[in-house]
Amino acid sequence: MPFTPIELMICCAARELEDGKTVAVGTGLPCAAAMLAQRHYAPNLVILFEAGGVAPQLPTMPVSVGDSTTFHRAVMATSMADVMQFCQRGMVDYTFLSGAQIDPYGNLNSTLIGGDYKKPKVRLPGSGGANDLASFCWRTLIVMKHDAKKFVEKLDFLTTPGYLTGPGAREAAGLPANTGPSRVITDLCVLDFAPDTKRMRVRSLHPGRTLDQVRAATGFELTALDPVGATAEPTERELEILRCEVDPGRYILGRAVS
Amino acid sequence: MTPPLFSLPDSDAARAAFVQKPRGLVDKVMTVAEAVRGFVRDGDYLASGGFGTNRIPTAVLHEILRQGRQNLAFAGHTATHDFQVLCAGNLTGRGQLVAKVDIAYVVGLEARGLSPHARRVMESGTVESVEWSNYTLALRFTAAAMGVPFVPARSLLGTDTLAHSPAKIITCPFSGEQLAAIPALYPDVAAIHVHEADRFGNCRFVGTSVADVELARAAKRVIVTCERLVPHDVMRHEPHRTQIPFLCVDAVCEVPFGSYPGNMPGEYFSDEEHLKLWLEVERDPAAFDQFLDDHIYAVRDFTEYLEICGGLRRLQQLRQREMLLHLGR
């Protein structure tokens, strides 16, 4: 069955979520991935939303991480601090984030474009809950469009911590030990982080994509696993759930990859 | 230069304000216009409850625009449509409503996109700002609700968000861990929308509390808008359901559908078409001025705004959407 780049990204993201684990989900595409996972391979996935929703059974894809669907048939509707403190105590396995820019260490920018803080070229929302979630959750999953303007050597603003400057940097800053980004999912490939350098590397290429294409769309030096893997295509079942149950209004599916 | 604190976390100064709050069960019911006239002053630090487009005190925000308040500081905590509304008081020929912002999340409306006008305001260099995260800005209300000058957290560390924040790094005196010290924030005034309140200001709501339980205790003055006024006895009957007690509250305004165009749990869903209209019309400043006149400035009150936006017919659709009656049809 034919599929779009955004559908493949959502499927890749959803497959990273193991059944019976906990995940704190950010706004947009991650909501779609969490809902697909819950409807397909991870029925016991415990989804947490930063506004206070704990373990909802999502009836439709949320438009806001605080709307009524984020605590539909949930076990608890609580406060933001309570959810964030589950994360800070070490009880949340994954978080799912995106950003406007990412650097080789998986640090994210969602604050501004253009170097001048007082008068930025583009003012973006800021951290939201991203800084907290990426600081606290055991593994951070990142989804974003692969583009040399977004995959940059140096961020305009380091909003949210990845591995900061490399091995040991998170711990030296005081962040919880053994945490950090584990996967970056783009419209071209899936990346992970080399254990020795904490720099991003290509893990698997999406169908029809080459390493040269990926490198051309990356603003920093990028290594790859040898041999590099091949991303599995979305199954018919995944696409059916995605199109008919998760996002029939094409809220996310209808957008260009961003 | 150290990023500034727009409101000092001075515990004794806060106590001096809280000692003034009325202790008695007095009737606090009034109109939104009266509440804003009485409790929101030029130069105040304002905080708004809910989560961006969910359980937000829209009527109070509109009234602040109508009454032309100037030079407010604002807690940009999970702010989306609320911040978009306040920004309509900047760069639209009516002075400057927003002067300072503590930013955790502003300018965006989550998956719906960025607000063109809020971007114009924040990119103009005319608004002073510093950075936080949603959790740490919520913690500022927690510290204030506790009556202490700061609480520690393990986020912000190692980032530019911290470098542009007045938060400071401290070492734990017990474990030696490095932590971010998050200063208390005592807003001059908070506006919070709830499901039910009695005439004295006892409040309860359903759904997530976001940071409102703490905010109601942290703010020096609190304006509550509610979907429904209920008899005082309702609160006495189920005291475990009261999330905000009358002691915190200064004004109670009954505003049915008061979170519109936002979502109100169990009552009505967000009006995504109207939110889209805001984002579209903001692209052209002249069209936006006309839109603001038509929807806010030349409008008497929030009820009239609801009528302009489709009235009961539209609200009925949003109620059905909230009940998920559209599924499987």
How would you concisely characterize the structure shown here?
By secondary structure, chain A is of the alpha/beta class. Chain A has helices at 5-15, 29-39, 80-88, 130-136, 169-173, 211-216, 236-246; strands at residues 22-25, 46-49, 53-54, 76-77, 94-97, 101-102, 108-109, 112-113, 122-123, 139-143, 180-185, 189-193, 200-205, 223-230. Chain A is 23% helix and 21% strand.
CATH fold descriptor of chain A: Glutaconate Coenzyme A-transferase
The CATH topology label of the largest domain in chain B is Glutaconate Coenzyme A-transferase
> Biggest interface pair, residues each?
A-B, 61 and 65 residues
Q: Name the helix and strand elements of chain B from N-terminus to C-terminus, one letter apiece.
A: HHEHEHEHEHEHEEEEHEHEHHHH
Q: Summarize the amount of helix of chain A as a percent range.
A: 10-25%
- State the CATH superfamily name of chain A: Glutaconate Coenzyme A-transferase
What is the residue-mean pLDDT of chain B, rounded to a whole number? 97
Largest sheet of chain B: 8 strands, mixed
Mean pLDDT of chain A: 95
CATH class of the largest domain in chain B: Alpha Beta
Reading side by side through the largest sheet of chain A, how are the strands ordered? 2-1-5-10-11-12-13-14
- CATH architecture classification name of the largest domain in chain B: 3-Layer(aba) Sandwich
**What would CATH call the homologous superfamily of the largest domain in chain B?**
Glutaconate Coenzyme A-transferase
Number of separate structural domains of chain B: 2
Could you explain how this protein is built, in words?
The complex is a heterodimer of chains A (258) and B (329). Chain A has 258 residues and is α/β, with parallel strands linked by helices. Chain A has a single domain, classed as Glutaconate Coenzyme A-transferase (3-Layer(aba) Sandwich), CATH 3.40.1080. Chain A contains 7 helices and 14 strands. Chain A has an 8-stranded mixed beta sheet with strand order 2-1-5-10-11-12-13-14, with helices on both faces. In chain A, strand 6 and strand 7 form a beta hairpin. In chain A, helix 1 crosses helix 2. The longest helix of chain A has 11 residues. In chain A, 59% of the residues are buried. Chain B is an alpha/beta fold and 329 residues long. Chain B has 2 domains: 281 residues, Glutaconate Coenzyme A-transferase (3-Layer(aba) Sandwich), CATH 3.40.1080.10; 34 residues, no CATH class. In chain B, 34% of the residues lie in helices and 17% in strands. Chain B contains 13 helices and 11 strands. In chain B, the strands form 2 sheets. In chain B, strands 1, 2, 3, 4, 8, 9, 10 and 11 form an 8-stranded mixed beta sheet that branches. A 3-stranded antiparallel beta sheet of chain B has the order 5-7-6. The longest helix of chain B is centred in the middle third of the chain and has 13 residues. In chain B, 54% of the residues are buried. The model of chain B has no long low-confidence stretch (mean pLDDT 97). At the A-B interface, helix 3, strand 9, helix 4 and helix 5 of A face helix 5, helix 6 and strand 7 of B.
